[in-house]
């Protein structure tokens, strides 16, 4: 199963060929228009089946697309108060439950240190869902250990520890590359001015069950030139192949 996590920075219909060139089985796409708008605006009939999409802005939500015999379905346990956390049943050659994430950490009312972030709230809300069968968490988490502060409940390191200790999930990138959180050599966000030597951060992730890490056959992070330099987005995709 090939999982792609990418923040497309809107207008996916103009960029979809680049996404499809990655040959995803499951694509978690942040800042994506609702499916009907994509169908109307796209030049080709690339949408297969019914994707999952959540959000309030029809031009900018969170989507999960399935290809190559895979099917996705929003779980009945979805709670709309967690606006951009989607519990998704993934069926096909490899079955799992997925939390697709586009974390809105900056919308915590200006008191970040006193509040749980959206993913932490999602882990509490969807604990049973994540325990039903092998679980995957993928998307734009908008967080990194470099921003951690003592006592803040939104700290990235706390999420990473909870994911491993309570759910048995680890970041595929960090496990395969052997890099610590906060010390990533490959960024996923070229922030603000979208230049290679400007501010860069690693904030997009695919978390897999620890038992799956040994079955990862490919992991890559998109190159700046092909994605940001080409004007597609300020984010590059994370691509993970796992042979379960």
What does this structure look like?
The protein has 244 residues and is an alpha+beta fold. It has one domain: Deoxyribonuclease I, Chain A (4-Layer Sandwich). 23% of the residues lie in helices and 29% in strands. It contains eight helices and 14 strands. A six-stranded mixed beta sheet has the order 3-4-2-1-14-13. Strands 5-6-7-8-12-9 form a six-stranded mixed beta sheet. A hairpin with a 4-residue loop joins strand 6 and strand 7. 43% of the residues are buried. About 2% of the residues have low confidence.
How would you summarize this macromolecular structure in one to three sentences?
The protein has eight helices and 14 strands. It has 244 residues and is an alpha+beta fold.
Q: How are the secondary structure elements laid out?
A:
Blueprint: E1 2-7, H1 12-21, E2 26-32, H2 35-41, E3 52-54, E4 61-66, E5 71-74, E6 85-91, E7 96-102, H3 118-125, H4 127-131, E8 135-140, H5 156-167, E9 169-171, H6 172-177, E10 189-190, E11 200-201, E12 204-209, H7 210-213, E13 216-221, H8 224-227, E14 238-242
Parallel strand pairs: 1-2, 7-8
Antiparallel strand pairs: 1-14, 2-4, 3-4, 5-6, 6-7, 8-12, 9-12, 10-11, 13-14
CATH class: Alpha Beta
Helix-strand makeup class: alpha+beta
Mean pLDDT: 94
CATH homologous superfamily annotation: Endonuclease/exonuclease/phosphatase
The gyration radius over C-alpha positions equals 17 Å
Proportion of strand residues: 25-35%
- Please name the CATH topology: Deoxyribonuclease I, Chain A
Count of domains: 1
> What is the string of SSEs from the N terminus onward?
EHEHEEEEEHHEHEHEEEHEHE
**Strands in their spatial order, largest beta sheet:** 3-4-2-1-14-13
State the share of residues found in helices, binned by percent: 10-25%
The general outline is: globular
Query: What is the CATH architecture annotation?
Result: 4-Layer Sandwich
How would you sum up the major sheet? 6 strands, mixed
Unreliable stretches: 107-111
* Distance between the first and last residues' Cα: 8 Å
Number of strands: 14
How many individual helices? 8
């Amino acid at each position: 199963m090939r999982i792609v996590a990418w923040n497309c920075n809107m207008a996916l219909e103009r960029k979809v060929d680049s996404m499809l060139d990655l040959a995803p089985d499951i694509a978690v796409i942040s800042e994506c228009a609702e499916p009907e708008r994509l169908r109307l605006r796209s030049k080709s009939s690339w949408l297969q089946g019914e994707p999952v999409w959540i959000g309030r802005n029809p031009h900018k939500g969170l989507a999960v697309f399935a290809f190559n015999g895979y099917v996705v379905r929003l779980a009945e346990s979805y709670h709309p108060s967690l606006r951009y956390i989607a519990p998704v049943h993934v069926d096909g050659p490899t079955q799992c439950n997925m939390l697709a994430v586009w974390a809105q950490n900056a919308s915590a009312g200006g008191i970040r240190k006193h509040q749980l972030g959206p993913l932490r709230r999602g882990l509490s809300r969807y604990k049973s869902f994540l325990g039903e069968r092998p679980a995957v968490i993928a998307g734009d988490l908008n967080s990194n250990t470099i921003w951690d502060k003592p006592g803040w409940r939104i700290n990235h390191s706390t999420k990473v520890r909870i994911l491993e200790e309570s759910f048995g999930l680890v970041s595929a990138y960090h496990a395969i590359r052997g890099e610590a959180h906060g010390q990533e050599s490959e960024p996923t966000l070229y922030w603000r001015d979208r230049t290679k030597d400007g501010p860069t951060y690693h904030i997009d992730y695919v978390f897999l069950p620890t038992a799956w890490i040994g079955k990862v056959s490919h992991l890559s992070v998109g190159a700046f030139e092909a994605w940001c330099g080409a004007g597609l987005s300020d984010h590059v995709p994370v691509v993970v192949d796992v042979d379960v």
